[in-house]
């Protein structure tokens, strides 16, 4: 007994190098998401051939992943911090309609439309955030309220202003190239670039900057986090602003890309983003997860969503696959989390 | 005898019409463990919350190093060197030891907007701090806090408070949820904190644990200090009786002894179904 305890501190030194071992990789939050992605790739490769990995096939699911991923990451960060935002479902058409009404219906500058859209995104985020921290009502309920309220505003105002539920928008020049075009004249949306850049920024913010630690602490134990000096209220508001602004951004870019905006649509983002986040290994009750995991989760979702077109299956079955995938992912992530909790330095040699 | 670090003078606290604490006078010195004993509802938690800045006293004053202070928020008390460790350690189960140790004060490397969290340094400092407190089983700062035993978590929280310069350590029922062996660990850490010259306020209702580390004891009953005595002045039975509100425990023990005397030394048995 005494000899083993004495030898352990010495062992601890090379422990930093052991992070690349299989066991420690499996204990990372994104392990489940990565394995899920592999499984889905193998599944669709087996049943549909490799068409979906060729450029044309890839752009179909990369476009879906990019639009979803930009929203899923901030939604996932809120979940890590112990909150939920479902109002993103209304923010997508809100963002699309704002830019379309200002720059399409009224014919004002596209840059003004973009600025107002972003400002509306920030405003709704601030309202969500303030309501959550001031009222202590669960954020699911608060954002359910703002989901419906924003939907009402979008439909009511659009019909009032334009007498229609669909508004055309024509954008040319740099705004089109930056926000809503296809890359190299192909089928890949410029959104994919935004998604990759934003993902890299989030990875830095969450996993490398010291502030990322705060978000995990908030989700782990909000009271302790506050006592440790973390400005929990400010961080909560910031995260809500990120998620609603990101959703408005995606809506805006879609309107610029497709040259029109509809009052409906966007609801699918609510569940799809939550599925991507949970498949990506984020714990629904907060405190655990990773941006890379959400990234993998989003790709997995997008492949299932689009891959079905490349198989002989009727596409009506894709929801079944997503449902089963979600349950498997949650079970697998639970297992990996238990492994992470029970992991000790002792097992390192085994 | 050294001067008290922290002294409570005539503290009263009421929530609306309900008086919770009456005229509490207590003091704690460096290198001394003050055990705050009391049954559930005696006002222990309210007293801790006043000390840690969660509540403010209705009347009365708190003195730190002989000067009157006010703690309007937990943060202020913490900056004054008063650290509270709660029953479950107040740590984050799904965070690594290094990350949870430095929550809010993360060490960084790099410059400007590219300052990044220095994982290696955080882990090394955290592991060393815990090992210095005598928990040598913790060697890997990447391990998740949730994988530690209850006693280790308490120790981690205490080590954290000590590392960040706590002068007064308030331990809220640190041994309540622990097994015998784990509790011994925590008591050893309490002794280590005391040896380093910290003033420790140890809240418990386990008289055995209090007697193992305490120098000075105060028993709270219905919000008032019912007894205030030093080590060796009272026996365990006397303290237990005091906590239970006087004679009730003694009379229960008397009843059992009486029963045993009339039943050939057998204690009362549960009625068989």
Features:
heterodimer; A: 350 residues; mainly alpha; ABC transporter involved in vitamin B12 uptake, BtuC; disordered N terminus; B: 273 residues; alpha/beta; Rossmann fold; 2 domains; 4-stranded antiparallel beta sheet; 9 helices; 12 strands; 34% helix; globular; nucleotide-binding (chain B); ABC_transporter-like_ATP-bd (chain B)
Question: What does this molecule look like?
Answer:
Chain A: It is a multi-pass membrane protein. Chain A: Keywords: Cell inner membrane, Cell membrane, Membrane, Sugar transport, Transmembrane, Transmembrane helix, Transport. Chain A: InterPro entries: ABC_transp_permease. Chain A: It is found in: Cell membrane. The complex is a heterodimer of chains A (350) and B (273). Chain A has helices spanning 2-12, 22-26, 31-48, 55-80, 88-105, 110-135, 139-162, 174-179, 191-208, 210-220, 222-227, 232-258, 268-279, 291-307, 318-342, and strands spanning 166-168, 260-262. Chain A is mainly α. Chain A has one domain: ABC transporter involved in vitamin B12 uptake, BtuC (Orthogonal Bundle), CATH 1.10.3470. In chain A, helix 9 (191-208) crosses helix 10 (210-220). The longest helix of chain A is centred in the C-terminal third of the chain and has 27 residues, at 232-258. The model of chain B has no long low-confidence stretch (mean pLDDT 82). In chain B, the strands form 3 sheets. In chain B, strands 6-9-10-3-11-12 form a 6-stranded mixed sheet, with helices on both faces. A 4-stranded antiparallel sheet of chain B has the order 2-1-4-5, with helices on one face. The longest helix of chain B has 16 residues, at 180-195. By secondary structure, chain B is α/β, with parallel strands linked by helices. Chain A binds chain B through residues 5, 8-9, 11-12, 15-16, 19, 24, 204, 208-210, 212-214, 216-217, 220-221, 223-230, 283, 287-288, 337, 340-345, and chain B through 74-75, 78, 84, 86, 90-95, 99-100, 102-108, 115-117, 120, 123, 127, 131, 136-137, 139-140, 142-144, 146-147.
């Amino acid at each position: 007994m005494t000899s083993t305890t004495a030898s352990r501190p010495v062992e601890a030194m090379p422990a930093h190098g052991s992070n690349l071992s299989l066991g420690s990789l499996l204990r990372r939050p994104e392990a489940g998401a990565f394995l899920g992605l592999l499984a889905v790739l193998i599944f669709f490769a087996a049943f549909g051939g490799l068409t979906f990995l060729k450029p044309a096939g890839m752009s179909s699911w990369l476009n879906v992943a990019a639009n979803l991923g930009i929203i899923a990451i901030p939604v996932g960060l809120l979940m890590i911090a112990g909150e939920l935002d479902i109002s993103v479902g209304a923010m997508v058409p809100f963002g699309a309609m704002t830019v379309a009404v200002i720059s399409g219906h009224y014919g004002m500058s596209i840059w003004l439309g973009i600025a107002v859209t972003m400002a509306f995104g920030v405003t709704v985020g601030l309202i969500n955030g303030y309501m959550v921290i001031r009222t202590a009502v669960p954020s699911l309920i608060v954002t359910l309220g703002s989901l419906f309220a924003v939907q009402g505003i979008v439909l009511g105002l659009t019909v009032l202003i334009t007498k229609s539920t669909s508004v055309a928008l024509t954008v040319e020049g740099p705004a089109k190239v930056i926000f809503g075009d296809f890359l190299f004249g192909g089928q890949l949306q410029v959104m994919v670039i935004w998604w990759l850049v934003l993902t890299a920024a989030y990875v830095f913010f969450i996993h490398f900057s010291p502030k990322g630690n705060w978000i995990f602490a908030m989700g782990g134990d909000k009271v302790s986090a506050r006592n440790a000096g973390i400005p929990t209220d400010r961080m909560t508001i910031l995260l809500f602003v990120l998620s609603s602004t990101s959703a408005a951004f995606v809506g805006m870019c879609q309107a610029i890309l497709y040259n029109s905006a509809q009052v409906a649509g966007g609801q699918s983002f609510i569940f799809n983003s939550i599925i991507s986040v949970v498949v990506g290994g984020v714990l629904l009750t907060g405190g655990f997860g990773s941006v890379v995991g959400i990234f993998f989760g989003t790709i997995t979702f997008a492949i299932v969503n689009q891959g079905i077109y490349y198989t002989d299956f009727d596409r009506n079955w894709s929801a079944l696959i997503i449902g089963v995938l979600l349950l498997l992912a949650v079970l697998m992530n639970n297992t990996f989390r238990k492994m992470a909790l029970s992991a000790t330095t002792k097992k390192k040699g085994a | 005898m050294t001067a008290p670090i922290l002294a409570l003078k005539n503290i009263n606290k009421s929530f609306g019409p309900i008086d919770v604490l009456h005229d509490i006078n207590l003091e704690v010195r460096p290198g001394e463990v003050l055990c705050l004993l009391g049954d559930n509802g005696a006002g222990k938690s309210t007293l801790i919350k006043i000390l840690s800045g969660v509540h403010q006293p209705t009347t009365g004053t708190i003195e730190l190093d002989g000067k009157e202070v006010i703690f309007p928020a937990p943060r202020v008390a913490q900056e004054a060197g008063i650290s509270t460790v709660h029953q479950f350690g107040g740590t984050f189960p799904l965070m690594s030891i290094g990350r949870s140790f430095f929550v809010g004060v993360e060490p960084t490397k790099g410059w400007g907007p590219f300052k990044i969290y220095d994982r290696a340094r955080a882990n090394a400092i955290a592991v060393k701090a815990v090992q210095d407190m005598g928990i040598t089983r913790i060697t890997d700062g990447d391990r998740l806090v949730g994988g530690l035993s209850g006693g280790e978590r308490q120790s981690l929280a205490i080590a954290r408070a000590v590392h960040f310069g706590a002068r007064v350590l308030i331990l809220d029922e640190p041994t309540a949820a622990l097994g015998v062996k784990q509790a011994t660990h925590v008591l050893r850490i309490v002794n280590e904190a005391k040896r380093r010259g910290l003033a420790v306020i140890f809240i418990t209702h386990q008289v055995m644990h209090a007697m193992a580390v305490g120098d000075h004891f105060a028993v709270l009953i219905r919000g008032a200090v019912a007894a205030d005595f030093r080590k060796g002045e009272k026996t365990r039975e006397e303290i237990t009786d005091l906590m239970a509100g006087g004679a009730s425990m003694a009379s229960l023990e008397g009843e059992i002894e009486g029963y045993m005397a009339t039943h050939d030394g057998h204690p009362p048995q549960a009625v068989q179904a």
